[in-house]
Amino acid sequence: xxxxxxxxxxxxxxxxxxxxxxxxxxxxxxxxxxxxxxxxxxxxxxxxxxxxxxx
Length: 55
Description:
Blueprint: E1 12-17, E2 20-25, E3 37-44, E4 47-54
Antiparallel strand pairs: 1-2, 2-3, 3-4
């Protein structure tokens, strides 16, 4: 089962593919536009892994 991209909350975008849940945590701030940092969250069967990305 695949769900569509859920971007209702701009600071927590989610997507689901079968038993995998993806989350993109972050947002844009008026201050500090020289960097974009987000956290990618991957959940599988009640276990979660997070990884910080500096774009």
